[in-house]
């Protein structure tokens, strides 16, 4: 969610910065050739690629080339180029800017993936470190569901036994929602049936709700009902949710064994 807003921010700021940079370099256009001024635009494109991702960097690279053409090559303030050397500078800046955008954004994507993986590990670490078999299971499961709602693009979660009795919910509103009709399949958590072909893995989880089977081997112990909050759900987010469903199967099984031992 935070990464998405940052990318949109730089998608607007990057091209605007390229235009302002062209204006700022106007006093230098009589002192040196346009080709020497391309380095400023390349530095800007690399910076935007680092913080804003691929599309923000591509937009910045294209606007940089246009800004160089409009403000810094003759005839000035026209999208035309009189000198063949300036044409080479324009084409070179466009090509190098797009290459810098592609390569720089790869690093940004890897950093984003590492950030997601770290959140995932922190979530599982907190679950195992704080889980106490001697305490009641339901409050601990509710704490886990609240952590999931905060870490993933979810509006609510409810863990139910096989007969749809609610064991734990992320909040009171989630417990009052009607049972979802959509079944989410496998690690990608796409709807079962023909809809799975048209639902992208980066699409939001169903706001009307979806059900994940809580399975231990071949035995189904319950359902994990989830409601999306309208934000895109990456493949890593969906896999995290699927892994949590498997973890809950283990916790439910241990809960059942604890009850039988007390009886």
Q: What is the string of SSEs from the N terminus onward?
A: HHHHHEEHEEEEH
Q: Give the number of helices.
A: 7
- Give me the Rg, rounded: 26 Å
Main sheet: which strands, in order across?
2-1-6-5-3-4
Beta content comes to 5-15%
User: Class by helix and strand content?
Assistant: alpha+beta
CATH architecture type of the largest domain: 2-Layer Sandwich
Oligomer: single chain
Shape: elongated
Number of strand elements:
6
User: What is the H level of CATH, i.e. the homologous superfamily of the largest domain?
Assistant: GAF domain
Estimate the mean pLDDT confidence: 79
**Helicity range:** 55-70%
Catalogue the unreliable spans.
195-200
Tell me the major beta sheet: 6 strands, mixed
Number of domains: 2
Summarize this structure as a short list of keywords or feature phrases.
263 residues; alpha+beta; Beta-Lactamase; six-stranded mixed sheet; 7 helices; 6 strands; 59% helix; 13% strand; elongated
Could you write a compact summary of the structure shown?
With 263 residues, the protein is α+β, with helices and mostly antiparallel strands. The protein folds into 2 domains: 2-113, no CATH class; 135-262, 2-Layer Sandwich (Beta-Lactamase).
Annotate the secondary structure layout:
Layout: H1 2-24, H2 34-52, H3 54-72, H4 84-130, H5 137-151, E1 154-161, E2 166-169, H6 172-176, E3 182-185, E4 190-191, E5 210-216, E6 219-228, H7 235-262
Parallel strand pairs: 3-5
Antiparallel strand pairs: 1-2, 1-6, 3-4, 5-6
């Amino acid at each position: 969610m935070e990464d998405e807003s940052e990318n949109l921010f730089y998608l607007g700021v990057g091209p605007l910065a390229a235009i302002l940079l062209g204006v700022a370099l106007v006093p230098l256009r009589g002192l040196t050739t346009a080709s020497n001024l391309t380095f400023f635009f390349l530095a800007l494109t690399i910076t935007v690629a680092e913080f804003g991702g691929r599309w923000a960097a591509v937009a910045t690279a294209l606007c940089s080339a246009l800004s160089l053409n409009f403000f810094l090559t003759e005839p000035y303030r026209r999208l035309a180029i009189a000198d063949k050397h300036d044409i080479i500078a324009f084409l070179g800046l466009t090509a190098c800017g797009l290459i810098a955008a592609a390569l720089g954004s790869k690093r940004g994507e890897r950093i984003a993936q590492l950030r997601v993986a770290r959140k995932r590990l922190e979530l599982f670490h907190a679950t195992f470190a704080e889980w106490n078999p001697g305490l009641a299971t339901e409050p601990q499961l509710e704490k886990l569901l609240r952590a999931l709602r905060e870490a993933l693009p979810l509006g609510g979660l409810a863990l139910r036994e096989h007969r749809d009795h609610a064991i734990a919910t992320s909040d009171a509103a989630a417990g009052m929602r009607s049972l979802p009709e959509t079944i989410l399949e496998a690690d990608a958590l796409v709807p079962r049936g023909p809809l799975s072909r048209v639902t992208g893995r980066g699409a939001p989880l169903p706001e009307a709700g979806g059900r994940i089977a809580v399975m231990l081997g071949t035995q189904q112990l319950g359902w994990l009902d989830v409601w999306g909050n309208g934000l895109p759900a990456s493949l890593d987010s969906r896999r995290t949710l699927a892994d949590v469903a498997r973890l809950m199967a283990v916790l439910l099984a241990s809960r059942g064994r604890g009850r039988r031992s007390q009886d």
